[in-house]
Amino acid sequence: MKLDAVLARIDADLPDATERLLALLRIPSISTDPAFSADCDTAADWLVNDLQSIGINAQKRTTPGHPMVVGHADCPAGYTGPHVLFYGHYDVQPVDPLELWDNPPFEPAIEQTKKGEVIRGRGSSDDKGQLMTFIEACRAWKAVHGVLPAHISVLFEGEEESGSPSLVPFLRENAAELTKDIALICDTGLFESAVPAITTQLRGMQTEEFTITGASRDLHSGMYGGLAGNPIHVLSGLIAGLHDDSGRITLDGFYDGVQELGDEIRSQWQGLGFDHAAYLGDVDLSVPAGEHDRTPLEMIWSRPTCEVNGIWGGYTGDGFKTVLPAEAHAKISFRLVGDQNPDAIHESFKAYIRAGLPDDFSVAFSDARGAAASQMSIDNPAFEKARKALSDEWPRPAAYIGCGGSIPIAGHFKDILGMDSMLIGFGRDDDQIHSPNEKYDMESFHKGMRSWARILAELAE
Amino acid sequence: MKLDAVLARIDADLPDATERLLALLRIPSISTDPAFSADCDTAADWLVNDLQSIGINAQKRTTPGHPMVVGHADCPAGYTGPHVLFYGHYDVQPVDPLELWDNPPFEPAIEQTKKGEVIRGRGSSDDKGQLMTFIEACRAWKAVHGVLPAHISVLFEGEEESGSPSLVPFLRENAAELTKDIALICDTGLFESAVPAITTQLRGMQTEEFTITGASRDLHSGMYGGLAGNPIHVLSGLIAGLHDDSGRITLDGFYDGVQELGDEIRSQWQGLGFDHAAYLGDVDLSVPAGEHDRTPLEMIWSRPTCEVNGIWGGYTGDGFKTVLPAEAHAKISFRLVGDQNPDAIHESFKAYIRAGLPDDFSVAFSDARGAAASQMSIDNPAFEKARKALSDEWPRPAAYIGCGGSIPIAGHFKDILGMDSMLIGFGRDDDQIHSPNEKYDMESFHKGMRSWARILAELAE
Fold this sequence. Notes:
CATH class of the largest domain in chain A: Alpha Beta
Distance between the termini of chain A: 13 Å
Oligomer: homodimer
CATH superfamily of the largest domain in chain A: Zn peptidases
CATH topology of the largest domain in chain A: Aminopeptidase
């Protein structure tokens, strides 16, 4: 059987595949920090070269930000299955606080852990390790049979971790080239680190950054303390007021478009037996902290949130400085679900902040970005084919699940290209993506490649 | 008359005195930042040399932190007045945010402004410019008459801006050497930038730094947002709860020891005609923001405060990172008045924070320091002599006033050495001490020297 030879090839080639991933991980392609701009470009070049080496005609395509990588392979002879567009991102999160990394984040290494072998380094799970599972599956098919099994195009982005400013214009300008039958997106995880999963429900996101200003300069707290308002106090009060005592978000109209779970999805999720105690215990927490009347799985998959992702103001260095600062700053993100409208929430947030400012205070907003939540239709037969392929590879049958994270690309593929997405990934809950000591399990990498080899075979049937 | 020749000498020597101050200002003696440790040492050496050049036998004295400078001059023949200990500090505040300085903070310069000539640079007003007014007055007496007019010792500290950790042990160990009849402290200002003043009432201070911790590592807000508590939210709620709606501080027992103003002081302060609109207008504020039922002068001189001086947590760099942070941090200071007990407020603050932590959250406190408020007795005849000398120099008669800042040295002189202090200084409200573009008016520097020359003459009468 054609597939068996490909799987055997993947098994035999694992050491070389790992070396290729390590090479990609060594490129510090942090997209949000302009200091690493050249490294993002280097990562794009690396991918173009690697795709060309397996017969995918790939190019680096410039944008006003970091480049896209687009590639197309020839359609196999006699192929009647779907033309797929595989998406991944080659950029990574910043690495601070650097001192909490056990090893330098861009000197990746293979480590033996109690839970098995892992690939440690920034981007190993999010998303370089994941995107390489697909490339390696293609490489094995090409090596064994001389052709790819399905009609494949690829799109790799370099701005996913910095709000994807160039993505929507790029999709619009290249819609004819990029619109295929279905998208494959590898940026998600196994359910509870064990059950292979196709994510059909994704939260959206609205991000806000703002500065509260009081006096026109920093003041001495002895000369003005008690008389002049303190922007850190004002900011703290505004943040504290964003949630009520039951954990609900207080913005006007915030819950417009939030739907209750359907009975079918609710019972399917209950069937998953989510172990929230273990999920929280992994990070040394024990008590769900969100809305009082929601289950933990609802909280992270189907309920909207408001989180402060960063706050700063006044003197934050060593020692003490009795300053009464002129400014205080915060970065806030809202996770969105159902039909919540990011623009409406942006307006409601601004109105809330402005209404809460005392006399003499002002606010400046910057860098707001929004993407609505996504919901896939599983009527497309590709979903059941992929679910079968995943169930063949892994010890447990694959499930349709939700995801608390925001992967705006799925919404953009739907809105701009009219294309559904299958979100399949092999990350684990303890991968520490966006945190120090990020890792990707060798098993995820290995079985991930095998999973894609199987999925491509199924799609070609 | 002996004094007239000294005042003329001060006038003639102003250019050289200015050059000496600029030389001292060029030494970046930031005490709170260990990177500037050697510079603090250099500043101490500079002062030792300068004091020796005017016949004061000075030494650099080591401490576990930055050195003290101690000097003693011979008693003038036939002198029957008080032996004074002059105190100043040669260390300065940090300079961030550096980008808000128009010129490098340690490249001081003379500037012409609409309000007159100023000396611009970190430490020009707080406290190098002020302490040099005293040294220059001594230099002029020495140059004209060959002797100092009074019996003088000096103590210069290098840790005033970083909590003075070495001060109390040093005073205890050297109590016999340092206990004189009265202390002269030059670290305060003119009232409303115009009225020469002797400060008789100083707020104390309790500083707190603490970290709120939730999960054991930074989390992805998509994976945990809504389920795991956010330490920035917890910190914000705690800060918001430190004041009630009327501006009062909510800590248990916080107002114990806070006295109402006596009728005499209240009427004297009313007589000052404090222009709070101008005071706030200087920094583009218009509305007093503190306790609703207090006058602005009470707020800054005789009422206790609670200010957040710094806050930080999560991602604060460029761009966006959807982190749900493990930790959030704040630096808070309380200004104290009357008989408020710093230790009791420290305990009450810790109890408040601990009581407000949700499940799974913890707090770590560090670096708390306290100093009680000070109240001078003006029965000592030196006070009226100094008030007369100041009234002779300046266009308006001198007043006894309060001060919102904390100058713990006055309390330590009283508690440890049993010595009263006269707090006399020539700073102005717009000196921007602790802020970018700190300056000292040339008039303050010049008339400050002349004021000390007169005060020393009066004390010798």
